[in-house]
Design brief:
Layout lengths: L1 H9 L1 H27 E9 L5 E8 L2 E6 L3 E9 L8 E3 L2 E5 H4 L9 E8 L3 E8 L2 E6 L3 E9 L2 E6 L3 E8 L2 E5 L6 E8 L1 E6 L5 E6 L6 E2 L7 E5 L4 E6 L4 E7 L3 E6 L1
Parallel strand pairs: 2-6, 2-8, 3-7, 3-9, 8-10, 9-11, 10-12, 11-13, 12-14, 13-15, 14-20, 15-21, 16-20, 17-21
Antiparallel strand pairs: 1-4, 4-7, 5-6, 16-19, 18-19
Length: 259
């Protein structure tokens, strides 16, 4: 008892500070545990050939797909509470992930954020109701990224033969190379559509911005491309016109940039 009395009488302030600090540490620890409990992680790896197809349908959350130099598909998913069910299937060279089917009848499912790595030559087909989609380093036969309602689409270093990007509200950015006889389609209701391709690219273009008439050809303005329909549309060819490029933005802008 004298020891405690001495401490209290000669140095009361540090003890109060230590007590406050201890309480803060307890609260921080509790918050960390709560965050960890609120988010779960799902991982799975599949062997894959060069032409593997990834088909993903998400409800909400960010989906990031990256090409890499391995013959396997790596799936990492971070599940917010209430945690969704994920039951991927690998059938005949296609990996299916369908969170709408896996969680049918569950209206309170939390968002799921994916990081998926696939071989460079893969076919990528991803879709979500709400959230951002990102695809990088893919040169296979297809890149399809669709958002039903709201979210941004970012396609970087893409050399696929066919590309389709579509959203409701949000920006679309494409950086890549058009392939001869390739087909490229970009559509948005409201947002900015930005296309970055090498100077000298060859394509047949129909670009339409009916509400804003905001179409900027940038470095490609010297090509055989002309404004029609009172500036609401640009049509024509660049180079030999070997690829087909269709862009529609109902209430946003369309811009071209040199890669």
């Amino acid at each position: 008892m004298p020891i405690f009395a001495s401490l209290n009488s000669h140095n009361p302030r540090p003890l109060g500070v230590l007590t406050t600090a201890a309480c803060l540490l307890i609260l921080l620890a509790a918050g960390t545990v709560a965050d960890a409990a609120a988010q779960k992680r799902f991982t799975r790896t599949y062997p894959a050939g060069q032409n593997v197809r990834l088909q993903l349908l998400n409800r909400s959350g960010t989906v990031t797909v990256e090409g890499w130099n391995r013959q396997e598909v790596s799936i990492s998913a971070f599940l917010e509470a209430p945690a969704a069910s994920i039951e991927p299937q690998s059938l005949s060279g296609t990996i299916y992930i369908n969170l709408v089917r896996d969680n049918q009848g569950r209206p309170d499912v939390g968002s799921v954020n994916f990081l998926i790595r696939v071989p460079f030559e893969s076919f990528v087909d991803i879709e979500t109701k709400i959230g951002n989609l990102s695809v990088t380093n893919i040169r296979g036969g297809l890149v399809r990224a669709h958002i039903t309602t709201e979210g941004d689409i970012t396609l970087t270093n893409i050399e696929a033969d066919n590309v389709s990007a579509q959203n409701g509200i949000g920006d679309i950015f494409f950086d890549g190379v058009f392939q001869p006889n390739g087909n490229y389609r970009f559509a948005s209701i409201s947002g900015n559509i930005n296309i970055r391709i090498p100077l000298g690219s060859s394509f047949r273009l129909v670009a339409t911005a009916p509400s804003t008439r905001n179409i900027s050809l940038g470095s490609f303005s010297g090509e055989n491309l002309r404004f029609v329909s009172d500036g609401r549309r640009v049509a024509g060819t660049a180079g030999d016109g070997s690829a087909t490029l269709t862009i529609t933005n109902q209430r946003g802008s369309i811009s071209f940039f040199r890669r």
